[in-house]
Amino acid sequence: MAPDSDKRNFALREDGDESSVFSGGTPRQAALKAARRLDPADGEDEADPKEIRLREKGTHKVHIYEAWAWVEEAPDDKPDWMPGDITKGNVSKQGVEHLDEI
């Protein structure tokens, strides 16, 4: 895992508003964290992909992903504190957009 100094911050953009910030060494790591906040489906096959846009803080780059989330049963070797059902997420990169203004 990357040291904290290698982490980058990405703001989730919704209608021009940046409501949440996710960090990760790569844009995909931040997008996976954001995907888990979506309304989860009962299974990955039933999940409805949604577009998420993440602007890298300090830049004018917006990373565009198709993201989806679903609920599945936790693994048998899960720690005691973990619930029986967990939310999983996945993303597919659609491209990068460059903003004129932030």
TrEMBL record:
<dbReference type="Pfam" id="PF05854">
    <property type="entry name" value="MC1"/>
</dbReference>
<feature type="compositionally biased region" description="Basic and acidic residues">
    <location>
        <begin position="1"/>
        <end position="14"/>
    </location>
</feature>
<feature type="region of interest" description="Disordered">
    <location>
        <begin position="80"/>
        <end position="102"/>
    </location>
</feature>
<keyword id="KW-0238">DNA-binding</keyword>
<dbReference type="InterPro" id="IPR036620">
    <property type="entry name" value="MC1_sf"/>
</dbReference>
<feature type="region of interest" description="Disordered">
    <location>
        <begin position="1"/>
        <end position="54"/>
    </location>
</feature>
<dbReference type="InterPro" id="IPR008674">
    <property type="entry name" value="MC1"/>
</dbReference>
<comment type="function">
    <text>Protects DNA against thermal denaturation and modulates transcription.</text>
</comment>
<protein>
    <submittedName>
        <fullName>Non-histone chromosomal MC1 family protein</fullName>
    </submittedName>
</protein>
<dbReference type="GO" id="GO:0042262">
    <property type="term" value="P:DNA protection"/>
</dbReference>
